[in-house]
Design brief:
alpha/beta; globular; 6 helices; Rossmann fold
Length: about 210
């Protein structure tokens, strides 16, 4: 297996990339800032210097890959929704059907108001919804892509090592879920590489 990893230097992406390398999986990364990785990591991966808003860079990073993993953030703008068309186009060009992404619990369905997403409902405690709106746009783009996508949707994300113990639920946040570590979010996303669970689904994850 050869993985294209987007957002590999981020909080979840770094854990995921290290898990892939420990499992001796070939990694092709798209890196805006390669210096964020140690030389030992850079020596174990192939990488394209660029970002997801460059159609050419995305296409180059995906050459000969089998699966795409994205831990991209909104980056304070609309990076997800603006970059997703390039990701989808490059995947189809390379014949890649599987993509696993990290989203946000805001785009899960609300339990209290099932016709709404959490960020649109009374469940959300956030006053600012810009990031959730960008995740929502990217989610819609994946829904319309025809690809085998899974969006892992964590709630509050403290930086912690993976424990391997957590709860997941399709389309909603597990009841009373209030946090999940960066390490365990990566652990679950990585486990999906060897399963066919949650295809074309959002997955809530929490302790």
């Amino acid at each position: 297996m050869r993985l294209c990893v987007l957002g590999s230097t981020g909080r979840v992406g770094q854990y995921f990339t290290k898990m892939a390398l420990q499992d001796e999986i070939s990694v092709s990364a798209l890196l805006r800032n390669p210096e964020k990785f140690s030389h030992s990591i850079l020596n174990q991966i192939s990488f394209t210097k660029g970002d997801v808003l460059s159609k050419e860079s995305v296409a180059e990073a995906m050459v000969d890959c089998d699966v795409v993993f994205s831990a991209l953030s909104t980056d304070g703008a609309n990076v997800l929704s603006e970059g997703m068309p390039f990701i989808i186009e490059a995947m189809k060009k390379e014949g890649i059907s599987r993509i696993i992404t990290i989203g946000t619990a805001g785009i899960l369905q609300s339990r209290a108001e099932p016709h709404l997403l959490r960020y649109q409902s009374s469940e959300s405690k956030r006053k600012l919804t810009r990031a959730a709106e960008d995740h929502h746009k990217a989610y819609t783009q994946l829904q319309e892509s025809g690809l085998n996508w899974t969006i892992v949707c964590p709630t509050y994300l403290p930086d912690r090592e993976p424990t391997g113990t957590y709860r997941t639920e399709k389309d909603v946040l597990p009841i009373d879920g209030s946090r999940i570590s960066t390490g365990d979010t990566a652990h679950f996303a990585f486990s999906l590489l060897k399963k066919h669970d949650f295809l074309q689904s959002r997955v809530g994850i929490a302790y």
